Amino acid sequence: MARTAGSVGTKTFDEVRKAALQLFARHGYAAVSMRQIAAQVGVQAGAIYNHFPNKQALLADLLIGHMRNLIKACDEAGIQPASPQVELERFVRFHIRYHIDRADEVFIAYMELRNLEPDNFREVQTLRQRYERVLRDILRDGAKAGVFETSDAPVAGMAIIAMLTGVNTWFRYGGRLSVTQIEEIYVKMVMQSVGIFDPALREEENA
Amino acid sequence: MARTAGSVGTKTFDEVRKAALQLFARHGYAAVSMRQIAAQVGVQAGAIYNHFPNKQALLADLLIGHMRNLIKACDEAGIQPASPQVELERFVRFHIRYHIDRADEVFIAYMELRNLEPDNFREVQTLRQRYERVLRDILRDGAKAGVFETSDAPVAGMAIIAMLTGVNTWFRYGGRLSVTQIEEIYVKMVMQSVGIFDPALREEENA
DNA sequence: CAATTAAATGAACGTTCGTTTAATTATATG
DNA sequence: CATATAATTAAACGAACGTTCATTTAATTG
Nearest nt to B51, CA vs C1'? Predict the structure, then answer.
C-alpha cells in the first residue's frame, strides 16, 4: 500500500481518529485500550502506530484539532463587527449550534484535559482561553458602552459559556424541542442575564 | 485489630474514602490503581478489601454518598416556603456555596458517571433528578405565578444549574473575588435570566 | 515489470492491573 | 489473661495494558 510521498490522509488514519473519538467520549481515555480502537477500525493494534506515535498523540490530536476548528469557526461566524447586543446574540447562537453537533469532541475536550501531557495541556488551554476571550471582550465592550449590566466580564463570560455548553448534557435529537427552539430559550436567558430585556434590541437570525 | 461487631467507622475506611476521592478527582477512576490509593493511606492494596468489596463499590459509595448529602443539605436549606423569587435566590446561594467547597465530589459525580455499573448509575441518576426537580419546581411555580418569564422550566433549570456548577471549573480560594462576591454576581445573573430585574424584589441573605 | 515503500499482521515484551489467599498482627471482649 | 476476631501483610493469580518488531501484503513509481 505505497502512497505518494507527502500525502497523509489515509483511510485508516481517519478511521482511527473517529473510533478513538467515540470510544474516548464513551468510556474515557484511560479506560480505552489501543486494541479496542483497533478492533473498531477492523485492524490490529500495531497498525495504529503507523499513523500515531502513541496513545497520547492520538488524544492530543483530537483535543487540539477540536479547539482549532472551534476557533476558526468562531472567527468566521463573527467577522463583521456589530453592536454588543448583536455580537452577544450571535455568539450564543454560534456556540449552541456548534457544540450541539459535536458532543463527543466537546465532552473529551473538557473531560480528558487532565490526561494530556504538560505540553499538550498548555496548548489546549491557550486555545481555550483564546475562545473565551471572544465572549469576554463582547461583554466588556457592552459594559463599557453601558448597554450591559455586567459588573465582572470574566466571571459573566465563564458563567455564560458554562450555561451554553451545558446543553450538551441533556440535548438529544428527536427530543421535545428543536435546536432552534432551544437556541431561542438560551438567547433570551443570556441576554436578560446581562440586562437586555427588550426583545426589540435583539437580532433575530434563525437559520 | 478486632473491633466491636456492627461498628463500621474504622479509621482506614474513612482514609481510603478520602484518598480515593482525591485521586479519582485528580486522575480519573480508570487511571487510579488500588495500589495508589493504598499507598496514599499508608497501607497495602489488599487491606482496602476489608472495607470495600471492590474498586467499583468504592466509586459508587463516593458518588451515591455525595448525591445523598447534597439532597439532604438542599432540603434543610429550603425548609420554609417562600415566594418564587426568594426561593430561587436561596437555591442559587445554596448551590454555589455547597458546590464551591466540594470540588472533588462534584467533579467525580459528573465525570465518573460513565464508570458506574448500571445499578449504581441508575441510583445516582435518580438522586440527581430529584435535586434538579427542586429548581425546576421553583421555576415552574414562578412562571405560573407570572413572576418569572421562564417559558420552559426544565430547560431553564438545566441552564441555571450548568451555569452555577461551572463556577467550580475556575474558582480557587485566594483569587480575585471572595465567595460572597461571586455569589452576588451569579444571583444577579440568574434572577435576571428569568426576568427579575429589580434588586428590591430579591432577598439579601449574605452569610 | 521490477523495485520500492507504506501498511498491516501476529506474536511477543515487560509491566501493571484488580483481586484472592494464607499467614500474621493487633485489638477488644469474657 | 486467654480467646476470638477484625485488620493487615506479602505474595501470588491470570488478564490486560502500551508498545515493539520481524515479517508479510499490497499499492505506487521509474
Answer: D7
Contact A26 B162 (CB under 8 A): no
* Record: contact A185-B155, CB cut-off 8 A: yes
Length of chain A: 207
- My answer on whether A96 and A109 are in the same domain is yes
Do A153 and A123 lie in one domain? The reply is yes
State the total domains in chain B.
Answer: 2
Residues A21 and A118 in one domain: no
Cα–Cα distances in Å, from A60 out to A8, A67, A71, A74, B117? Answer: 17, 11, 17, 21, 28
Determine the protein residue whose CA lies at the shortest distance from the C1' of C7.
Answer: A1
Place of cell 471572595: B178
Considering the domain architecture, whether residues A117 and A136 belong to the same structural domain is answered as: yes
Tell me the pLDDT tens digit for each residue of B141-191: 999 999 999 999 999 999 999 999 999 999 999 999 999 999 999 999 999
Give the distance, in angstroms, between residue B38 CA and nucleotide C19 C1'. 14
